[in-house]
Each structure stands twice: as C-alpha cells, then as structure tokens.
Amino acid sequence: MVIPRCETLRSWHADWSGLRVAVLGLGVTGFSVADTLAELGCVVLVHAAKVDDLRRQMCAVLGITVVESESTDAALTDVAEFGPDLIVVSPGYHPDHPVVLWAHTNSIPVWGDIELAWRVRDKQGEPAEWILVTGTNGKTTTTQLTSHMLLHAGFRVAPCGNIGVPVLDAVRDPGGFDFFVVEISSYQLHWLREVVPFSSACLNVAPDHLDWHNGFDNYVAAKAKVYTDTKIACVYNRGDERTRRMVEDAAVTDGARAIGFGLDSPGPSDFGIVDGILLDRSFLDNRHAEALEFTTVEELRGQGLHAPHMVLNVLAAAALARSAGASIDAISEALSTFRVDSHRYETVAHVDGVTWIDDSKATNPHAADASLRANESVVWIVGGLLKGVSLDELISRHASRLKAAVVIGADRSEVVSAFTQHAPHLPVVEVRAGETEKVMTEAVSAASSFVAHGDVVLLAPAAASMDQFTDYAHRGRLFAEAVRAHVAP
Q1: Could you tell me the fold of the domain covering 117-337?
Q2: By CB neighbour count within 10 A (0-12 exposed, 13-18 middle, 19+ buried), where does 416 fall?
C-alpha cells in the first residue's frame, strides 16, 4: 500500500513544496489554511461558495487559485480536475459533501485545519503545548478563563481555534508560546486525527448541530475525541454522565488523570464547592484530607461569573490551568480581573427592579437551559434557526418560571407550537417584523408589557441567529440598543 506523501509530513521544516492541496472554504479558517499552505510552498486551489474581495485579492498576491461557486457539482468538477494530493476542509463543510465523499473513494486524505496546525506546530522552535476545550456550551468563556489564568501564572499563552483566532495563525506567530488554549468545535473534532493534547476538557454535551453530524450519537462521538491521547489531565463534568463515560472510554497517554468538576462537594482529584467556596482537591499532596480555596461564588458575582453555568466554567478552567502549573494565587488574581465577553449572560440594564440580560450566545437549548435555571421569574425572548433540535423539553422544564414568551425568528411556527403544547396558559407574542433593525425593538416592547419588579427579561434564543441577523453578536447588539432606548429616561 502506497502511503500518500502528505501523511509523511509532520513538521513545518519537512518538504511540503509542490504538494497539491485543495482547500474548501475561504472564511477566517479557510484563509489561514490557504495562507499557511502557500507559505509552505504547496500548490493551492481554494473552492468556496462565497469569497470576499479582500481575501480574493490577498490570495491573488499569494499565488493561490480561488474558484467561487455555490454549486457542489462545480466544486467536485473543479477539485477533481485539479488533482489534489490532499484536501483540507473548513469546519462548516459536512462530511457528506460531494468533494469529501469523492476524496474518500479515491483514497485522498481529508484533513481539518487543526490537523494541519498540529503537523506544522514547530515553526517557531519548541512547540507550544495544546490544551483543548470543547462542549456544547461554555467553550469560549472557559478558553478565555484558562488563558487568563495561565497568563497571570507567567506563561506565554494564546487562546485560539474556534474562539476566532485560527490555530494556524497562532502557530505562525513569531513570538512563540508555552501554551495554546484551543477552543475546538464538534466540526473540527470530527476531522481530528493525530493531536496529542497536554490537557483536555469536555464541559457538557447536549443535542446540537444534529443536522451536521446526522444524529446525536455522532455528535457525542465527535466530542469524545477531545480526550484521545491526552497526556496530563482529562477534565470532565461530574454533573454530565456522558463526559465521565467519554473519559473512561478514552485511549489516553499513560499517566493522564481524570479530574472532575461540579457544583457539589469535591472528592479527591476533583474541583467543586463547599459553602460557596470554590476548591481544588486535585493538585495538592494531601488531597484526601485537604483542599485549596481559590475564590468564592460571592467574589465571582462582581465579575459576572456567579450564575451556576458560569461557576462551572470557572471550575473547569481552574482545573486546566492547575494541570499546566498555575498556582492557586495566580488563579485567584486572574479571576479578580476577568471580564466576561459581550452577549454571554451580560446584564444590559437594571431599571425599576427589572433586569435585562443579553445571552444571545445561547444558540442552543442546552445554553438557554443554563440561563433560565439561573432566574426565577422570566420573560423569555426565544427563537431563530433551530439546527434540527426541539425546544419541547426545554419549554416543559421551565414553564413554571416563565411569565411570558416573545418569539422571534423568520420561522416561528415550531417554537409557537411547542409553547402551545407544553405551556398552553403562557402568554406568547410573535414578533412579525420583517426588517432586522425592527425585530429587537418590537421584542423589547412586547417583553416590557409583562414585567414587574423582580423579573428578568432574558434574551436566550436557544437557536442560531443567521435567519434574521449576521451572527449572535449582531443579535445581541440590537437587543442591547433596543433595551437602552426603552429604559432611557
């Protein structure tokens, strides 16, 4: 059996010249892939459904051929005629894309950007260690927290991956790093092959992206790959049985430890809480009889990290940072200066006893569930692209804490139907505005008619945003603007 040439290349300093590589997609990740391959001396063809003018111009300068077409048949024809030795797919491309299926049939390797980054990670000398973070929710916050903790511990660290900075850009940064904290999506994990993480975490698992993965079992299997070959610590959620089983079933490096985190009292080798105090019972000599305190839930309140799902993120990040050698003092100091990203359970206003919260990043039911659990009397703004998941269980679970629901989204029928079935007595208002700029104005106005002192108006859509907005951040910004306009004196 002939081994494809690309499979023998495991260093930036290997001979990549002349390797013919087809890249699918030219977004942020796709461009980082094409740019890297061009720098390595490969012959690169990019095929993308949409290409912005700036990236097209940059590719022209780099000698990269770009073909723009929304036709999958055209993509297959163009790639086949190019005759690639390797195909690198951007995260959004489905495993059953015609080009991917053609590649498998013709024994052409298919990689994701993470695989390529791992193989060329030695560009700047001694490679950084990789800490991988995945989960249905909380990935970005946990990645940022872990990076912030390691930075305060004196390490050179780069948060990268699905967080917005491609790993390939971090690999090529001339400064060099001790650690990459890599937020990695289920899409990227699907293509993962040879990465050996220093430590890794799956924060939680709930139905999401089922259309992409063709079912929940495949989605869980992709998430579980985060633990494969982990060297030091496999961090898992004690309150999520699936993550524990992932660690138990994982083929890890000898000596890797399982580190649990949860909101309950920690056992030896765990992180947890006793009387509102966050504790490490893992990284200390006498962990069977002692624990190390690093913050309290009350202290986290000032940083917007006090909601239960945020506290879980803190515990997971602390476990990862401690596994890398961060001191308890460094973690405590880091938590005192950390600020949560916009649109992640962010308080927009608190006026006349009513709190308006922007959790636009709650793009699936699991994330919305965490936000709803943190409040007792909620007017809920919900809806958007459901990505193949149902809201039935979520609505049934939280019906008792809801005062009203305001449903947004281009197609609201499925959401409204779920409320009719599972919360038939709940007031439900549909926002029928066709113009993006008016959706949140009408939603805020509708929500305001139901609130009283002590209530929360919660934007936690449980759905993706692209039916009416550019992204979740655009959705959150318009919500915040509408709230501020509504409550302004």
Answers
A1: UDP-N-acetylmuramoyl-L-alanine:D-glutamate ligase (3.40.1190)
A2: middle
